């Protein structure tokens, strides 16, 4: 019974729930447009799938870009570290190289500066001295007394005669020149081996320099390679000479550098004074269309002026005067009726500011200026200071010091060797430069007369070192130890050292010839000296071996 009642109740409840009045048709669980909804759902699903693919691609691209950036950053960081290490290694290598180079130079300089005293100097000579028999003190003393000492008196008489004639010739030159248009010639000065008392080879030739200046209102404005202007390496040691008016500075007025315009006028210079005709500058011996003094023009002017001067005074003398060399304006020769002759050089120069440094137009009998860049470039000569330095140092040396004797002997040997094998690039000026360096490096007592042999070996060792390194520095240029008593211009002391052997670095044929001549001179040294030496007892010559010529 209860079960039946329950079934009836369940049936009634089911009928009530499923009655159409309780659930209208539009709220039915299954709509009528089912296919349309399914289609839209499929389209939505497809669009969501495509969007998912696009997002996946973007994420993949971003991840790839991030990885590339991270990789690039790692590479840059590694390169920076490598560069830092490389820069540090390069700097360290340069420091080590400089230290080694400085040590090497100090060590090599210390070799020839060693004052070994009584030690055997032959033990420290270079390779070129192996097997060379060096004359002893007795042989050198005899050679010097017999061959060199007797020439001193001849040089003094010749200097006196040449200087007197040169003064007379220059006085006549001034009288034939136009004081308003021609160059003004000053008194001459003697320089070189004849006036430093170490010339030994004949014929004796006096070297005289003659400073000259332009007529008023002009002046010379000099520029050197170390004055701040840029000069190429092959022009070191040279300078230029600009002809300016005295109312200008060396660089000229600003009106020469800028265009003022037709309606503007410089208050310092009129149009006439600022514009110089080309012919006027050529009359002042300048290079064509420039204001720079031309050495070739100076040579021509000086030759003509000397010729006119000689024609005026020739009647006073019983000899003839002629130019001995066509390419040297002042290479003169006096010819006597007896057939004898005297040669001397009268060279025009320009004074550098208020010093005794001079611009020289050419070097007689020398290859120092063989490759002048142009005729407007003038070489600087320090010959006056060189003579003064030797005189100054000589006052501090012992009596009868051997410094001049060393240079005379070495100059004689070199000249004799050149007469046998021909001239080389090595000159007497190079030998004098070696002596100047040693005079400054060695103490005064080392130049006593009994130390002639040791000092001569020092000069040969120093010269051998310079030839090996192809470096022989000018004594004054770049030398901060020049005595203040000389009054030497500070601009040249602060300049970079000038290597006199620099021209031979690129000219290997001349350099080879120079080295061969030096080695031949060493091998023939004993024979050359003994040829002009009086007989010496055998006891004094033990151990001396003559080398064949």
Automatic annotation (TrEMBL):
Highest taxon in the source lineage: Eukaryota
Its membrane topology: Single-pass type I membrane protein
Keyword line: Cell membrane, Coiled coil, Glycoprotein, Membrane, Nucleus, Signal, Transmembrane, Transmembrane helix
Domain Mab-21-like HhH/H2TH-like: from-to ranges: 404-477
GO cellular component, one term: nuclear outer membrane
MF terms in GO: protein kinase inhibitor activity
Gene3D superfamilies: 1.10.1410.40, 3.30.460.90
Recorded coiled-coil stretches: 38-72
Signal peptide: 1-20
Major localization class: membrane
InterPro entries, sorted: ITPRIP-like, Mab-21_HhH/H2TH-like, MAB21L/cGLR
Subcellular location: Cell membrane; Nucleus outer membrane
Known function: Enhances Ca(2+)-mediated inhibition of inositol 1,4,5-triphosphate receptor (ITPR) Ca(2+) release.
Protein family (similarity comment): Belongs to the ITPRIP family.
Protein name, UniProt field: Inositol 1,4,5-trisphosphate receptor-interacting protein
Naturally occurring in which organism (per UniProt): Brachypodius melanocephalos
